[in-house]
Amino acid sequence: MEQLNINRYENDCCEWNTHQASKMKKFFLVVLLFTTIINISFLLKAKAQMVTCNNALISSTSAITINGDVLLNTNAGINNNGTIDLKGEWENNSGNNCFGLSHGLVKLTGTNQMIGGTSPTLFNSLLLQGTGTVKLNQHALCGGGYLNPAGVFNLGNQLLDLNSHTLTVTNPDGNALTTSTGFILSEKTDNSSKVTWQINNTIGAHVVLFGNNLGEYIPLTFNLTNGNAADVTFSTYATNPANQPLPTSPDSVTNINNSAAVDNSANMVDRFWHIEKSGINCNANITFTYGNSEVPANGNFSIVAQNWNPILKTWNPPLLIQSNPTITSVLITNMQAFGTYALTKLNNPLPIALLRYDTKPIGNIVRNSWITSSETENDYFTIERSSDAQHFMAIGRLEGAGTSYTSKQYIFDDLNPLAGTNYYRLKQTDINGTYTYSDVRKVYFEIASSFQIEVFPNPTTDFVTVSSNMKGTNDIALYDGNGRILKVMNTTTTISKIDMSNLPSGNYYLQIKNEDNIQSAKITKL
């Protein structure tokens, strides 16, 4: 196999020795095999060399070394089934992907090279073997249009700067993107530096070889387990310790507050990710990796991933099955939700919204209704009522959905509201016992309840007697101050006795309920 080596020239006028002329002759003989060739010119400039192809097709199965730049103009093409070793810039203005279905290799072996032009280039196999950075000044594709064997992009030991452009990997195989120590730099706050991988239905791990500006390797792994993901697009960028700037595109994130509406950046990894897919039905396991320089200020014990809900303008709860394969990575198993992601400590999750809480009189009752967008380890809701907006008592309880990623609606009717102004609030209690309150709602009710409940002695040191005019079978429940059920009784009598001698001092709540009515009372244990 002959090799053509075109070297740089210091002057416009140069003499060719016989051996060099012989090599050029052999190269042009190969080119003339194709009738589509109209014009090929090699322009040798002072201190720089450029190979320009105008309106022509270059064909070679040889190993060609070009020590300067390549400029492809309108309708130019390269039928490369060999190897092109390029030390200069690559500029494609041909109006097409230029390589067609040819399945050769392009090696970039220079220093700080550029891939650009007005047209994206579809390389088959691309190998980075130079020094410094390869920068995209135009979108690029790798993997070729030739299906078998499909091309591979090997980063070698270099850095590929996407530079607000998209690298598309057309080969769906998980080994289509490889590296030694090189990596891909995304790092644009508008998520304009992207990798799109045409994974389709190819099962297995696809590792996007991201790195950060400090040279830390932070790969993102998309492991398709079933379905057809079609095209999957990935981007990521680092933030400052306050997790600024927030993403603005393609999702506009408006806050990183925790559930207490307090800035949560000290518990968050200093990085955001965005993942999109064009496929409809697919499941995948996703591994996020971050650098040691991006660890939250409060440490990275039990870090989990959460994604932004652009419709509800809040963070969805952490997906159910997550783990930490390494100290700086998070694995989501069976991920189906895509979009913008952040990583945060499990005991300091980003907020979960209560979409709406309403109270309104309906006939002789007051209806409490609320909707959640999502729930994380939600044990139950307690409905509390007050006559003065200061001292609340529990009048009902509804079980929560645990962890849910869909909207849930709840209704609780106060069958015996107070005469005059009633104040209501929701208390939401997690499985671990932590709780939060909703805003207070006010309802004016004109009709007093005809049902009554009496508790005596109150305060008490041991037993209390409960008297009620509620007929039929009644359920009696005793709650502590956090809304946890301590005792449950079922009775058909109007008078019952409850033993509280073994309970600690504090405030407790009693609820009597039958199929028609509900009554509550506050008890103080001395």
How does this model look, in words?
It contains 1 helix and 47 strands. It has 526 residues and is mostly beta strands. It has a 9-stranded mixed sheet with strand order 2-3-6-9-11-14-17-20-23, with no helix packed on it. Strands 12-15-18-21-25-26-32-28-29 form a 9-stranded mixed sheet, with no helix packed on it. β43 and β44 form a beta hairpin. The longest helix has 14 residues.
Secondary structure blueprint with pairings:
Blueprint: E1 3-6, H1 18-31, E2 39-45, E3 48-54, E4 57-60, E5 63-66, E6 69-72, E7 77-80, E8 83-86, E9 90-92, E10 105-108, E11 114-116, E12 121-123, E13 125-128, E14 133-136, E15 140-142, E16 153-154, E17 159-161, E18 166-169, E19 177-178, E20 183-185, E21 194-198, E22 204-208, E23 210-211, E24 220-227, E25 231-238, E26 268-277, E27 282-289, E28 303-309, E29 314-315, E30 322-323, E31 329-335, E32 339-345, E33 354-362, E34 365-372, E35 375-386, E36 393-404, E37 408-414, E38 420-430, E39 435-437, E40 441-445, E41 453-456, E42 463-468, E43 474-479, E44 485-491, E45 495-499, E46 506-513, E47 518-525
Parallel strand pairs: 1-5, 3-6, 4-7, 5-8, 6-9, 8-10, 9-11, 10-13, 11-14, 12-15, 13-16, 14-17, 15-18, 16-19, 17-20, 18-21, 20-23
Antiparallel strand pairs: 2-3, 21-25, 22-24, 24-27, 25-26, 26-32, 27-31, 28-29, 28-32, 30-31, 33-34, 34-37, 35-36, 35-38, 38-39, 38-40, 41-42, 42-45, 43-44, 43-46, 46-47
